[in-house]
């Protein structure tokens, strides 16, 4: 029964109203008691059985102005077990949100049907469904003039799309599902516009190994063909370029990505195989790489380009675990120096190189020190790391002088993280865009003071994340409360004197990020590889063929992209070091077997082999006797000779030795660089010395004497026989004796000169000269080993 106050001209007395309320309370007491005895889970079960999900797939325009028509589309899905009848999708406009925290609160409960979102816009702007069967999704699309939404003051409004209906178990109309989002309302230009810088990161993972081929082009080897997939139409990097070309953004580029694509564009690249070999990359990917580079060159023309150090080194890992390892910071300096050259060569633009970007903008004092050690005096941080402590009622400008001539350019954390997570579904992407725009407008509404705000999204957005980012930036460009600005201009803007400039200590660094830091052992391995490279490069005639690919590979060892992939990072570092070891081992000493010396002096050859295709030099070969009292080399314990060898050849280096006693002596051959560092493994072999004794000489002398006596006897016998011949033949024959007639003809009975006796043009071989241990040096290739181009 209606109260008297519900009728015009009547009024109930206070006493009567009190009696009615008391009676209603007594009547409802048993009902209340019964409700209190119901199981607590009953309401939750009822709600879950009636649940309907609402997906807001599209809301255009994202930031409407006067005269626009707002179009909302999406799907509703009955997740319950009962059909929903008398259902309709309606639009709801909630209250104006006045703080950034209010926006966060609505976003946390965006699909809770128990929360209110104002009243529906009206029956005219709804879509009805006679029945929603369980498990069935229905599409909807509703258009409404903006002036029908009841938007009053400029600002951010809560906006919802709700499905109302009833079920057989609960046959009364109610909201069964809702999706809340935000509607930024700034119909005319704001009096003061926020200057907004949006970074457009163009980075990828590590793709190239340290290996290159033997030709003049040094055919590169890739870990896999994933880069080609990213560059192909529809790929992540292809979309980043296609979307970014029309946006007012600052491009942030890893030079390693450009170098990798450029290497692929040249053609004839190879792909690493599981068995350690490599296979040719598809030829059609060369055209894909060329097309992508051409599109990127056009996209960045006239835009600001910031080049990160080569391969985007992990500044946090370097600061936390690398600075104690000698030489680690030099790699960061090297990566910074090569960045500008790479970008200018490939893109034909001069980049800015004085910005450092730690992962997620998280900084501490050690990171700031490392980030600026290579010459960068501006560090991109984030507001959840460099938190405000002065209680400012507004978001301050990004630039913060932190001392020592360094500027921290602080990105807004809410705006920068708006596009993280899975945005492959249209509903998730739409919500991300609307939330971003709402936060941006709320920042502008905080104060009339003009500020510069930085947005630094995740380093490697997915294709769907990039699409959402592009939609948000386009809405800002066409909006009425912001204006675009380059990163350099934002860094130079006047800082807010009340903004915090205190860099947090290392203890404040997020534990989740610290777990992903490269360990100290990684930097120790990098230092070991660098030392090997320094030793190897000294002997090369063309150092660039080795120093450049290995130098870039060492930069990639430190890449930020290895975070969360520790096993893959270790495998890559192991591969770089193993390949360097294999190359260095192409210049080595050939093993020798035992050498015998039968005499007091002789020469010992030692062979050095070069299986590289380029000549090597600046090497010294040392041969050292372990027992110089028994065997001297070059008149002392050891002797050294310089070594230079053509590519693909071997060279025998001969050492003069002198023996002082019989016996076996171990001899060590070792290569050194000219600066005195050992190169390669030594070769040890035995030299067996056998001296010629007096007894042996007596035996030899006796044999020679017997031969002489036998020859003399033969001569005298023949002489006597010749003397008797004239007596038998008569006078005529005797007259023809050359000894008496002087005939120069050869005497018939004269013995010829003994072979091997006397002095001839060639000296006889001496017993002390042994046969050479190796063949003489040849100008032809050695034929051993594989030619390796370094």
Number of strands: 29
Silhouette: elongated
Give the termini separation.
99 Å
Tally of separate helices:
21
Keywords: Membrane, Transmembrane, Transmembrane helix
Region (Disordered): 100-122, 720-790
Transmembrane segments: 696-715
Biased composition (Basic and acidic residues): 101-112
Q: What this model shows, in words?
A:
33% of the residues lie in helices and 25% in strands. With 790 residues, it is an alpha/beta fold. Strands 8, 11, 14, 19 and 20 form a five-stranded parallel β-sheet that branches. Helix 8 crosses helix 10. The N and C termini lie far apart (99 Å). The model is unreliable at 1-49 and 730-790 (pLDDT under 50).
Layout: helices, strands, pairs:
Layout: H1 14-36, H2 42-49, E1 52-60, E2 69-78, E3 84-97, H3 100-108, E4 126-132, E5 137-145, E6 155-166, E7 174-185, E8 194-202, E9 208-212, E10 220-222, H4 226-231, H5 236-244, E11 250-253, H6 255-266, E12 270-272, E13 278-280, H7 284-300, E14 305-307, H8 315-322, H9 328-347, E15 355-356, H10 365-371, E16 378-382, E17 399-403, E18 406-411, H11 413-416, H12 426-445, E19 452-455, H13 463-477, E20 482-484, H14 487-492, H15 511-514, H16 520-537, H17 544-557, H18 566-584, E21 587-589, E22 595-597, E23 601-610, E24 616-625, E25 631-633, E26 638-645, E27 649-659, E28 663-673, E29 678-689, H19 694-729, H20 731-735, H21 738-741
Parallel strand pairs: 8-11, 8-19, 8-20, 10-12, 11-14, 15-16, 16-18, 22-29
Antiparallel strand pairs: 1-2, 2-5, 3-4, 3-6, 6-7, 9-10, 12-13, 17-18, 21-23, 23-27, 24-26, 24-28, 25-27, 28-29
Pfam family, one: DUF6049
Biased composition (Basic and acidic residues): 101-112
Keywords: Membrane, Transmembrane, Transmembrane helix
């Amino acid at each position: 029964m209606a109260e008297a106050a519900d009728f015009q001209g009547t009024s109930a007395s206070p006493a009567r109203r009190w009696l009615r309320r008391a009676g209603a309370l007594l009547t409802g007491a048993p009902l209340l008691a019964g409700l209190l005895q119901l199981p607590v889970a009953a309401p939750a079960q009822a709600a879950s059985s009636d649940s309907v999900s609402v997906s807001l797939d599209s809301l255009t325009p994202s930031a409407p102005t006067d005269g626009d028509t707002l179009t909302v589309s999406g799907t509703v899905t009955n997740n319950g077990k009962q059909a929903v009848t008398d259902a309709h999708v309606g639009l709801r406009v909630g209250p104006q949100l006045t703080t950034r925290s209010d926006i966060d609160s609505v976003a946390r409960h965006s699909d809770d049907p128990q929360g209110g979102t104002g009243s529906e816009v009206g029956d005219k702007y709804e879509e009805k469904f006679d029945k929603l069967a369980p498990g069935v999704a229905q599409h909807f699309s509703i258009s409404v003039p903006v002036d029908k939404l009841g938007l009053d003051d400029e600002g951010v409004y809560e906006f919802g799309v709700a499905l109302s209906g009833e079920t057989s178990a609960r046959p009364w109309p109610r909201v069964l599902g809702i999706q809340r989002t935000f509607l930024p309302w700034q119909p005319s230009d704001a009096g003061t516009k926020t200057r907004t810088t949006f970074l457009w990161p163009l980075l990828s993972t590590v793709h190239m190994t340290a290996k290159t081929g033997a030709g003049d082009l040094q055919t590169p080897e890739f870990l896999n063909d994933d880069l080609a997939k990213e560059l192909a139409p529809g790929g992540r990097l292809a979309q980043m370029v296609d979307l970014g070309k029309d946006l007012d953004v600052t491009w942030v580029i890893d030079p390693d990505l450009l170098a990798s694509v450029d290497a692929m564009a040249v053609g004839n690249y190879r792909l690493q195989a599981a068995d350690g070999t490599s296979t040719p990359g598809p030829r059609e990917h060369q055209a894909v790489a060329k097309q992508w580079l051409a599109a990127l060159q056009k996209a960045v023309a006239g835009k600001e380009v910031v080049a990160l150090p080569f391969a985007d080194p992990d500044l946090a890992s370097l600061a936390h675990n690398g600075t104690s390892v000698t030489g680690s910071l030099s790699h960061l300096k090297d990566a910074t120096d090569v960045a500008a050259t790479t970008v200018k060569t490939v893109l034909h633009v001069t980049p800015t190189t004085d910005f450092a970007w730690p992962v997620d903008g998280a900084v501490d004092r050690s990171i700031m020190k490392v980030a600026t050690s290579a010459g960068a005096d501006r560090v991109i941080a984030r507001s959840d790391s460099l938190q405000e402590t002065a209680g400012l009622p507004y978001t301050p400008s990004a630039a913060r002088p932190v001392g020592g001539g360094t500027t921290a350019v602080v990105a807004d954390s809410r705006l920068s993280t708006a596009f993280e997570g899975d945005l492959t579904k249209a509903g998730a992407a739409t919500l991300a865009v609307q939330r971003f725009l709402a936060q941006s407008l709320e920042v502008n509404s905080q104060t009339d003071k003009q500020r510069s705000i930085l947005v630094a999204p995740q380093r490697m957005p997915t294709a769907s994340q990039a699409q959402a980012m592009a939609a948000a930036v386009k809405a800002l460009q066409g909006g009425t409360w912001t204006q675009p600005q380059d990163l350099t201009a934002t860094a130079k803007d006047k800082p807010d004197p009340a903004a915090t400039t205190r860099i947090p200590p290392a203890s404040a660094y997020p534990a989740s990020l610290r777990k992903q830091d490269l360990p100290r052992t990684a930097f120790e391995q990098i230092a070991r590889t660098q030392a090997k490279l320094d030793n190897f490069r000294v002997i090369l005639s063309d150092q660039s063929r080795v120093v450049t690919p290995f130098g870039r590979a060492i930069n990639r060892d430190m890449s930020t992209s290895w975070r969360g992939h520790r096993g893959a990072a270790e495998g890559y570092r192991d591969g770089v070091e193993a390949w360097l070891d294999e190359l260095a081992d192409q210049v080595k000493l050939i093993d020798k077997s035992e050498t015998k010396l039968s005499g007091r002096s002789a020469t010992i050859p030692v062979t050095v082999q070069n299986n590289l295709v380029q000549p090597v030099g600046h090497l010294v070969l040392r041969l050292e006797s372990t027992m110089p009292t028994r065997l001297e080399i070059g008149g002392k314990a050891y002797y050294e000779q310089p070594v230079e060898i053509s590519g693909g050849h071997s060279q025998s280096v001969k050492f003069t030795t002198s023996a002082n006693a019989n016996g076996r002596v171990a001899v060590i051959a070792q290569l050194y660089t000219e600066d005195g560092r050992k190169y390669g493994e030594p070769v040890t072999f035995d030299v067996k010395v056998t001296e010629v004794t007096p007894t042996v000489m007596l035996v030899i002398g006796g044999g020679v004497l017997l031969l002489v006596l036998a020859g003399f006897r033969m001569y005298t016998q023949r002489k006597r026989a010749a003397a008797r011949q004239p007596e038998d033949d008569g006078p005529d024959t005797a007259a023809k004796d050359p000894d008496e007639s002087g005939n120069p003809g050869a005497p018939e009975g004269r013995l010829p000169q003994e072979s091997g006796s006397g002095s001839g043009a060639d000296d006889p071989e001496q017993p002390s000269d042994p046969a050479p241990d190796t063949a003489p040096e040849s100008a032809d290739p050695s034929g051993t080993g594989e030619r390796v181009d370094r």
